[in-house]
Design brief:
Radius of gyration: 42 Å
Number of helices: 12
Structural class: mainly alpha
Shape: rod-shaped
Oligomer: single chain
Order of helices and strands: HHHHHHHHHHHH
């Protein structure tokens, strides 16, 4: 008669063994990829920093494209302001030329004391004197039409000067906005350039990220923690192999080969492997350094697991 309890226990242990083997191979794959990446990175650049740099570069590329579009808009606005400024300068020059002619005509007529041929004011003060004479009705009749044309806001020298001064502030703001945009463009380009080498080194990890390994998030584990994880899984796997071997030779006096100590034996193997790793690596895993990966030989972690 089949003992279903024994059968279920054996099936559970078999499944557990497959899980251990699977995760051991998975951790070995990720740790090997991380070791290859770190051997290609510049000195002083850690694995986590390289991943962060590449991640920032992706955002920087999107920001760069957006910033280029925004800069094009800002440059177009500045060109429009410059064209408007040129038009206003031309209008002011034309208006002041008319003011000069009117002031000279009024001064020669000697109808208005505001404008004396011996002391005609300059600049906007001249236009103020012409307008004052017009308001006092002390200008030649032939000049009234020209003065009325200058009173129009589109031709008034005072209003044109005010608009030009305001436009100067707008142009200064446009220049500042363009300078800020250029600074952001340079920062984004610098981030992209900095990430170029790290991106090349991380190609193998990028491939893993695109597989089911990336879904599990194992590639995001720092190499020092992955060392400890791999050692623990190596110990579990090693203890599992010993257990399978001892199953062939069950009749011995070693207590740890007994069936009841199956789980304890597997766990003990993992803990011993971690202990040996920390001992040999001088606490490197605890301190978070990457020296053990870079300076170790190919079977360094396996040796830790054998312990």
């Amino acid at each position: 008669m089949i003992n279903w309890h024994v059968y279920a226990r054996g099936l559970m242990r078999a499944l557990f063994s497959l899980v251990i083997a699977f995760f051991f191979l998975l951790a070995l794959l990720v740790a090997s990829a991380q070791q290859q990446v770190m051997s290609q990175l510049d000195s002083g650049t850690s694995y986590s920093v390289a991943r962060k740099t590449v991640s920032d570069a992706e955002q920087a590329r999107r920001d760069l494209a957006s910033e280029l579009r925004q800069r094009g808009t800002l440059a177009g606005e500045k060109r429009a302001l410059e064209q408007k400024s040129n038009d206003l300068d031309s209008a002011l020059y034309s208006s002041m030329a008319s003011v000069d002619q009117l002031a000279e005509s009024i001064a020669h007529s000697k109808l208005c004391t505001r404008l004396d041929a011996d002391g005609i004011p300059q600049g906007l003060a001249k236009w103020g004197a012409v307008y004052g004479c017009y308001s006092d009705n002390m200008v030649p009749a032939g000049n009234r039409g020209d003065i009325q044309a200058l009173i129009d806001p589109a031709n008034d020298p005072t209003k044109l000067t005010t608009r030009i001064n305001r436009l100067k502030f707008d142009l200064q703001s446009a220049d500042m906005a363009l300078a800020d945009s250029d600074a952001r463009l340079k920062a984004a380009q610098a981030t992209i350039a900095e990430a170029a080498k790290a991106s090349n080194a991380l190609q193998i990890v990028t491939l893993l990220d695109q597989s089911f390994v990336g879904i599990l998030g194992l590639t995001h584990i720092p190499p020092s923690l992955m060392q400890i994880t791999l050692c623990f899984l190596s110990g579990l796997f090693g203890a599992l192999l010993i257990t399978l071997v001892l199953l062939v030779y069950p009749n011995n006096d070693l207590s740890f080969t007994q069936t009841n100590s199956f789980w304890n034996r597997i766990l003990l193997g993992g803990l011993i492997a971690v202990g040996v790793f920390v001992l040999i690596a001088g606490g490197v895993g605890v301190l978070g350094s990457s020296e053990a990966i870079l300076s170790g030989q190919n079977n360094f972690l396996s040796f830790c697991a054998i312990g």
